[in-house]
Amino acid sequence: MSRKTINYVRVGNAVVLALLFASWLNIFFIQPYIVSGSSMEPTLAGESLLDTDKVGDRIIVFKSAYLMGNAPAYGEMVIIDSRVDKIRTLKDQFFDSPILAFFSNKYSNEGNIWIKRVIGEAGDTIEFNDGHIYRNGDLLVEDYIKEEMRLPDELFIIPEDHIFVMGDNRNNSSDSREIGPVPVENVVGKVVLRFYPFHRFNLL
């Protein structure tokens, strides 16, 4: 084998190893996401199909945040798989990675992956009353929501190993009001950082 061919093989091996390492990081540790839609405004800006000039925030999600018995806490922003009636498998976790999804032509989970904020934990009672939210009878004071809420009166009791999530843009968000409490196993990870646009760079 010529020296040139050996160099090509070495470069190819290095590329394959780099892709495998990046995929491993994506599957189990950290992953970038592009925010889509307006449900988390004003906290996070999302891409819009109607406004091609609007740039969606780029965020980093820590996917190992809730391993070893850890559970999402009040106020945290999380990525969830909204298919709450479907048991997530290791296969789903693999194809959350855009690298593997690209090569498999199976990046179809995108519409099921939502960014929301944790409002309730297991055992909580969440009540909507006259446009306000009460958790276990206490009024929630939330300075991050976009505007005054227009909410029908409802009551939810959060089961064990579930959380209740909502978007910060309460009047334009699909969330636990629609799909119900979310199993903790459907939480893909915790939003920890916005890295783009650069002028909005911050920890979350």
UniProtKB/TrEMBL annotation:
InterPro entries: LexA/Signal_pep-like_sf, Pept_S26A_signal_pept_1, Pept_S26A_signal_pept_1_CS, Pept_S26A_signal_pept_1_Ser-AS, Peptidase_S26. One of its GO terms (cellular component) is plasma membrane. GO terms for biological process: signal peptide processing. Keywords: Hydrolase, Membrane, Protease, Transmembrane, Transmembrane helix. It is an enzyme of class 3 (hydrolase). It is a single-pass type II membrane protein. Residues 10-196 form the Peptidase S26 domain. CDD domains: S26_SPase_I (cd06530). It is found in: Cell membrane; Membrane. One of its GO terms (molecular function) is signal peptidase activity. It catalyses: Cleavage of hydrophobic, N-terminal signal or leader sequences from secreted and periplasmic proteins. The active site is at S39, K116. The chain crosses the membrane at residues 12-34. Its EC number is 3.4.21.89. Its main location: membrane. Belongs to the peptidase S26 family. This is Signal peptidase I. It comes from Halalkalibacter akibai (strain ATCC 43226 / DSM 21942 / CIP 109018 / JCM 9157 / 1139).
